[in-house]
Amino acid sequence: MRKVSSGLKYVFLSLVSIISLFPFLWMLISTTNKAVDINAGKFKIGAELATNFQNMLINDVDFLNSLKNSAIIAIITTIFALIISSAAGYGFEIFQSKRKELIFNILLLSMMVPFSALMIPLYTMFSKLNATPLRVIGLDSLFSVIVPSICTAFLIFFFRQNIKSFPKDLVEAARIDGLNEWQIFFKIYMPAAKNTYAAAAIITFMNSWNNYLWPLVSLQSPSNRTVPLALSIMGGGYTPDYGMMMTSIVVATIPTAIIFFVLQRQFVQGMLGAVK
Q1: What pLDDT, on a 0 to 100 scale, did the predictor assign at position 272?
Q2: Cα radius of gyration (the chain)
Q3: How far apart are the C-alpha atoms of 44 and 58, rounded to whole Å?
Q4: d(Cα 109, Cα 99) in Å, to the nearest integer?
Q5: Nearest CA to 148 among 206, 76, 224, 199?
Q6: Can you tell me the distance from the alpha carbon of 52 to that of 58, in angstroms, rounded to the nearest whole number?
Q7: Residue 228: pLDDT band by 50, 70, 90 thresholds?
Q8: Cα(239)–Cα(257) distance, integer angstroms
């Protein structure tokens, strides 16, 4: 009876895996077919991969430039978000203050505000920066996408929850040895919390790489388009080249897939709150 039960579980899990992987498999096969074959529902490997890849490179959308813009935004956002959010989470947990919890609860309440409600204030603020010496981070610049994402309430909450498992005795011992708070943070906490940083890096990078709504509003020049904007334009014509689109989607998926598979072990441990 136990063998039958185990067999049914494996059959069920296999079916779920096939259903989950089918869209990705169909996307990979579609990169080798023409748009007309994809529209006809052809599920067979074709011989158009090189043509689709070439069309992706010479397309008016300038997909390679979009990849570069998305990479710049995602990398800078991830680096600054990890440093700033982890420092904020560390401060909320390590340092004592009477109003600390009040401020933290207000910060958590901000997570309940939908981003669509913030777009108009953000647009107004960044458009006004264009008339100031800070126009480098004003509207229609890559930094107008980076700045709102370098510190989020979710990441601060995430780091604070993981810091709860960090041994506070190490902090006290480091203070006795003469280390200041920044030295404790960079030399003791950060190396010990590498799993937490890996999990946060994956989440932040993927969110930044796939961000569509705010770049659509803030980035107005074709030279500043990101990958989601370029893919949207590819599919917006009367006769979209689905073969080229699928090839572009596969290429756009590669960076996030690489980062996830490289850091997947640390990601699981970081989500579980493991601190070594």
Answers
A1: 65
A2: 23
A3: 26
A4: 16
A5: 76
A6: 10
A7: very high
A8: 30
